[in-house]
Design a protein that fits this description.
The complex is a heterodimer of chains A (about 260) and B (about 270). Chain A has a domain of about 80 residues: P-loop containing nucleotide triphosphate hydrolases (Rossmann fold, 3-Layer(aba) Sandwich). Chain A is built from seven helices and ten strands. In chain A, the strands form two sheets. In chain A, strands 6-7-8-3-9-10 form a six-stranded mixed sheet, sandwiched between helices. Chain A has a four-stranded antiparallel sheet with strand order 2-1-4-5, with helices on one face. In chain A, strand 4 and strand 5 form a beta hairpin. The longest helix of chain A has 18 residues. Chain B has about 270 residues and is mainly α. Among the domains of chain B are: about 120 residues, no CATH class; about 50 residues, no CATH class. In chain B, about 75% of the residues lie in helices and about 0% in strands. Chain B contains ten helices and two strands, in the order ααββαααααααα. A two-stranded antiparallel sheet of chain B has the order 1-2. In chain B, strand 1 and strand 2 form a beta hairpin. In chain B, helix 3 crosses helix 4 and helix 3 packs parallel to helix 6. The relative contact order of chain B is 0.11. The chains are: A alpha/beta (about 260), B mainly alpha (about 270). Chains A and B meet through strand 6, helix 2 and helix 4 of A and helix 7 and helix 8 of B.
């Protein structure tokens, strides 16, 4: 199976400061990649690269063999630790937003039967994340866990090729975090998602991921701490788990499975 | 118990708040009565009765010279100027403020000139407005708009630019174009802030209105106050000031109500 997402000799430099160096990676369809590493090791930069929030200084990123431009687009969904949902829209409005943007370029609002169809799709997505009874609730009235569920529904309704999670459970209570693990694991299986998740929690990384990437600096110059950048120093594939809990076999070789 | 921990209940709080107002009113009544006793024609501290009589005359009787009820004509003229002035300011704030906040290119292009305009005292450009636009309505409206718009634009631009970057990124990952992002993410979140900054700008707007009317006008609340000042007619000035204050309070209340009803999410309320 060819790689869904590949990074070819990617460097990120801010002036003198090298953040990432020589990152060569291939991520396949259906993988759940956890990214761990100490603070400042470029985990978030790595995620922003894939997201398109910034571009590499050198090298290139390919999605389905096509080079990525440094701009966000609907083929890569994201859930941040915070501020992922729009406070001025209800839960339903938040999920509808992505559908409305695609269907109504000028007004970004749907009316009549088009709205009804989009609404049904959005409601189904909200039910899938367990927010079926909270359609008309504003984010300010939701708990942190509910907001993250909403952010997931909002991203998934666009059927992104890759879902990026930036410490999505970092701000949640331990109990809620376990519920969210179950939810995300389930959604990953059901929808055949490809996920890249940055986390501080090693247990979480191994529990959820089919592959764990550890970012750190290979070399360190004590006199010039910014001289060398980080890269994926460990790349652990949890194969046993992929077979046991990974997506069913029928999804293999269906690149469009997550893009219905 | 420490003083900082004594919190009045809602009933007594209204009572406590009313006490200073009642004291002020009673003190004025006593002082004006004392002066009226010494000199029945005293103009400096008119009694409440004298003010009520003057107000009744201005608010109900038709002025034979103009054929209009004086206070009503003044109010209509002033509110029209104020309304058009703040309308222009609000609309231009909405367009420029959001463009500045959302589009870095616009911020780079227009940010500096708006900062420069904002530091110019508006009253100092009033002569320019009179020369350029004449002494009619246009210059008064322009003074209000020029006076409050720069502050409102800067306030709105910084508010929009300060919205979490995650929201703009998220919107783009959901397929939003620059226009859709502006329309559906920036604009709705800018509106409650716009109303908030308009509420704060109403004070200066009244100042600019009354200044412009005081200098060159033939009708208006500010014109009337400055006209009757020549005759020391405190019995007209004070009811007019009270009337202006009442209008200001009503405007503020209306703006707050609109904001609460239209943007419940911005006031921490339900739907």
């Amino acid at each position: 199976m060819s790689a869904l997402l590949s990074l070819e000799d990617v460097w990120v430099e801010y002036g003198e400061k090298v953040v990432l160096e020589r990152v060569n990676l291939e991520i396949a369809q259906g993988e759940y990649v956890s990214v761990v590493g100490p603070s400042g090791a470029g985990k978030s930069t790595f995620l922003r690269l894939i997201l398109g929030q910034e571009g590499p200084s050198r090298g290139r990123l390919l999605l389905d063999g096509t080079p990525l431009t440094p701009e966000c687009s609907p083929d890569r969904g994201v859930v941040f630790q915070r501020y992922s949902v729009f406070p001025h829209l209800t839960a339903l409005g938040n999920v509808l937003f992505g559908l409305e943007c695609a269907a109504a370029p000028l007004t970004a609002k749907l009316l009549g039967s088009a709205r009804k169809a989009a609404r049904e799709e959005a409601v189904a997505m909200l039910e899938a994340v367990g927010l079926g009874h909270n359609l008309d609730v504003y984010p300010a009235q939701m708990s942190g866990g509910m907001q993250q569920r909403l952010a997931l529904a909002q991203a998934l309704v666009k059927h992104p090729r890759v879902l990026l999670l930036d410490e999505p459970f970092g701000a949640l209570d331990p109990g809620i975090r376990l519920d969210m693990h179950e939810l995300v694991g389930g959604l990953w299986q059901e929808h055949g998602l490809t996920i890249v998740m940055v986390t501080h929690d090693i247990n979480e990384a191994f529990k959820l991921g089919t592959r764990v990437l550890a970012f750190d600096k290979r070399r360190h110059d004590p006199h010039a701490p910014n001289r060398y950048g980080a890269t994926a120093v460990y790349d652990v594939k949890l194969d046993r788990k992929t077979r046991e809990a990974g997506p069913p076999a029928e999804w293999a070789g269906q690149p469009g499975a997550g893009n219905m | 118990m420490r003083l900082v921990n004594i919190k009045p209940a809602s009933g007594p709080r209204i009572l406590i708040g009313a006490v200073p107002i009642i004291i002020a009113l009673v003190a004025y009544a006593v002082l004006s009565a004392a002066r009226a006793e010494a000199n029945p024609n005293d103009k400096v501290l008119p009694t409440f009765l004298a003010m009520a009589r003057a107000a009744l005359r201005l608010f109900t009787e038709t002025d034979p010279r103009t054929g209009q009820v004086t206070a009503m004509a003044d109010t209509a003229a002033s509110l029209w100027r104020l309304g058009v002035g703040i309308g222009i300011a609000t609309l231009s704030t909405l367009v420029i403020g959001i463009a500045l906040g959302v589009v870095p290119l616009v911020r780079a292009a227009l940010g500096p000139i708006i900062t420069v305009i904002a530091v110019i005292p508006p009253i100092a450009v009033l002569p320019i407005l009179f020369i350029a636009l004449g002494l009619g309505e246009a210059s008064k409206i322009a003074l209000i708009a020029v006076g409050i718009a720069p502050y409102m634009i800067r306030d709105l631009a910084s508010h929009v630019a300060g919205l979490p970057a995650e929201q703009f990124i998220k919107a783009q990952t959901l397929g939003a174009s620059t226009w859709q992002l502006t329309l559906r993410v920036a604009l709705p979140q800018a509106l409650p802030r716009l109303i908030e900054s308009l509420r704060l700008s109403m004070g200066p707007a009244w100042v600019f209105l009354i200044s412009a009317e005081a200098i060159a006008s033939d009708v208006g609340l500010g014109y009337r106050i400055f006209l009757v000042r020549r005759y020391l007619s405190m019995d007209i000035i004070l009811p007019y000031v009270a009337w202006i204050s009442l209008l200001a309070i009503l405007t503020d209340w209306a703006l707050l109500t609109i904001s609460r009803k239209a943007f419940p999410w911005a006031h921490g309320g339900g739907h």
